[in-house]
Write a structure and sequence with these properties.
The chain has four helices and eight strands, in the order ββααβββαβαββ. It is an alpha+beta fold.
Length: 194
């Protein structure tokens, strides 16, 4: 495989799905991220190690700015899910644990409580998967989730990902209990075109 410096890869700043504008972080996004985290902290705590404490507004803006830097250096591609009609932050997703040589990406996500259960995350994951396949020439996409996180399992299944395996007692949940990690994947030549 040809090796390319990720800094030379042109990545669009945004793209759209039916109801969402999916875009890279921008300086100043901290306020909307802070609002969504504060609203959703109880639903995020069981699944997100970073959501054990409510961040300050300043911490939220610092996180956004760090995400912007990572987007620009191509080490992590956080993406914000913005509702087209209201302009509100629906949630956050992105392409993580990137291996540019293999063109392998992991999709992670969280949703703001007021938008939960309305299909926005499935829509976003499908859009991000298509973006990764078409724009970034992805060979492999993964979704990893706790075996008791039924919503994440359903998103992976609805988005055409195949369960490849379960890593038993792989890591600790936020409450310290060992969890089983389910690995779902879509692979070029199998679940999407050659």
């Amino acid at each position: 495989m040809d090796t390319i410096n990720p800094l030379l890869i042109t990545i669009p700043e945004s793209f759209e799905t039916e109801r969402l504008t999916i875009r890279a972080p921008q300086f100043g996004d901290g306020a909307m991220v802070h609002e969504a985290i504060c609203e959703s902290i109880e639903q995020l705590r069981p699944w997100m190690p970073w959501a054990q404490d409510v961040p300050t507004m300043e911490q939220s803006e610092i996180g956004v700015r760090q995400a912007r830097v990572h987007f620009l250096d191509r080490s992590d591609l956080r993406l914000y899910l913005i509702h087209k009609d209201s302009g509100k932050l629906v949630g956050c997703s992105g392409l993580h644990r990137i291996d540019w040589q293999a063109r392998k990406f992991e999709i992670g996500d969280w949703v703001s409580t007021s938008y939960s259960g309305l299909g926005y995350i499935t829509e976003a994951v499908q859009g991000i998967a298509n973006f990764a396949i078409d724009q970034l020439e992805a060979n492999r996409l993964e979704i990893r989730c706790d075996s008791i996180n039924h919503r994440s399992i359903q998103v992976a299944q609805r988005s055409g990902f195949t369960l490849e395996g379960i890593l038993r007692r792989d890591e600790c949940r936020t409450d310290g209990v060992l969890m089983d990690t389910m690995i779902f994947a879509r692979v070029r030549g199998v679940e999407f075109g050659v």
